[in-house]
TrEMBL record:
It holds the Pfam family Usp. This is Universal stress protein. Residues 2-131 form the UspA domain. CDD domains: USP-like. It comes from the Bacteria. It comes from Liquorilactobacillus mali KCTC 3596 = DSM 20444. Coiled coil: none annotated. InterPro entries: Rossmann-like_a/b/a_fold, UspA.
């Protein structure tokens, strides 16, 4: 949230487009379950939950003075590392990725790898980390 607020202030002050991406890590959701992939119903339910959360975040940003033409939210399913570095950047051609400090524990990071480490290695644009 801290990274998002700082980024929203910066984009508002410099009249820059803000793409907010939330990746639902389906690799972690399936970890420990007997089904290798989420059903379409499960994905739809999760997407609805996160769309509401994203809509609330966008409303907060708009209430602070950003233009509705400036702020865009996106939800994707998959491996966050691949979605951020490959799929999303190819589709939107953003110039800067802002990452917040991760909140995961050491076990999670050991099982999935660090999103930050992957993004800093493979992203084709600049990266800014906010603590």
């Amino acid at each position: 949230m801290n990274a998002l607020k700082k980024t929203a202030n910066y984009t508002r002050n410099h009249n820059i487009q803000l793409d907010i991406l939330y990746v639902i890590d389906s690799t972690i959701l399936a970890f420990g379950n007997f089904q290798p992939e989420m059903s379409s119903q499960q994905k739809r339910q999760l997407k609805e939950i996160y769309e509401k959360k994203m809509a609330n975040l966008v409303q907060e940003i708009l209430a602070e003075g950003s233009s509705m033409y400036q702020v865009h939210s996106h939800i994707r399913f998959g491996d966050p590392r691949k979605i951020i570095c490959e799929n999303f950047l190819e589709e939107y051609r953003d110039d800067l990725i802002v990452l917040g400090q991760p909140q995961f524990n050491q076990l999670h990071r050991a099982l999935t790898g660090s999103v930050y480490a992957y993004v800093t290695k493979y992203a084709t644009c600049d990266i800014l980390t906010v603590r």
